[in-house]
Amino acid sequence: MLCVIFGLSLLDRTNVSAAYIAGLAKDLRLDIGARYNIALLIFFIGYALFELPSNLIIRRLGARYWLSFLIISWGACVLGMGFVHSWTTLTILRALLGVFEAGLFPGAIYIIGSWYRQFETAKRVSVFYMASLLTSGFGPIFAYVLSLIRVGDGMYRSGWRWIFIIEGIATIVAGFVAPLFLIEFPEKVTFLTPRQKHIAVTRVSLEQRQGDEVEHPTVMQSLSMLRDWKIGVYSIQYFVAASSVYSLAFFQPIILRQGMHFSYALSQVLSSPPHLFAIVLSLSFAWLSDKIKMRWPILIAQSVTAMVGLLIILYAQAPGVRYFGLFLATFGTQANVPASLAYGQNQTARVQKRGVVAAAMISVGAAGGITGSTIFQSKDAPLYLPGMWATIGMQVLYSTVTLCMSMYLRKMNRLADEGKRPALEGVEGFRYAP
Description:
It is found in: Membrane. Residues 1-414 form the Major facilitator superfamily (MFS) profile domain. It comes from Pleomassaria siparia CBS 279.74. It is a single chain. The protein is an all-alpha fold and 434 residues long. It has one domain: Growth Hormone, Chain: A. It has 19 helices and no strands. The radius of gyration is 22 Å and the shape is globular. Mean pLDDT is 87; it is low at 207-212.
């Protein structure tokens, strides 16, 4: 169910690009100035501000009902976009969409981190993210079909409206169904005995060997956890991963349409295969990362693949070769989103802190969304040279930061093994997973 609702969330936040080339830009005059970029980036302001508060609420209220409320709320925002007549109303609804979607992704990562141990998380987070990516991979085709709907002679003859209306209704329905299928945190589930709940909680948290009850950190405790400088490094990693993903998500259909000169229908259809390719390779690399118990070689390999793909898109001449580059770029950027989140969770010993780490990383990732929605500007068409090189440069930063951080963590593990360091993360026996 987490996969289903996250897939819907990705559709709901990126379907504006499909609507843009289906007539939204013309009807609302989004082609004037920076209107389209503003409508994109306004989403990420609320998205960044409400992630940490949501993760402080979710464990207290329970995932089933809190997430269901968020799903229904953002579904209503998407539905409302199908009836707008001005770009300002669209922008306001995009801002509210960010507020309500903010709690889903960090909440889901928090849930997964509460059930699985250090070298069990990468493939689970990747399955969660890639299964939802399967939904968004077919999103452009689905959007194209919806854009063909025509009803009456008024505004409902505009196909882009039906993209928002149908997808908004689907999300609202999923929100009402979600309480029946969403998983709770280990201590709240009803299908485990008290002994099984104890095992589920203590197996993932070394500091709770004595059977301590799960504590809910206060706001001040959460802010204190944020003082850990390593969270800043994990956030830089996720910032790069998120900005690169959003860049391609928002502008891939436009690049296919304007940059590679494919037809509207073909541009929508050709948006899906790169996502399917990314799913298969990302799951394989996540499994390999858990198998070899190493994160950094996989993270850097995926980042380098993204760089190669972006360079091919930028400088190859034949459309087929540039399209192949899109496969590599999509895989390299998408794969490092769940991989980076798993990396941050793996370096955090206390379960209570994992929710804070996930929220902090994804909040900074919202800034990556702002970057991704602004570096590709209409005036740079058809090559979008500044945006492409900005994305490549960030991937270089990602590889450099990941290598330096991982070498530092390996050094800390070695010093702890030699007895030259106190307990890592304040937990006896804990070791980082670089």
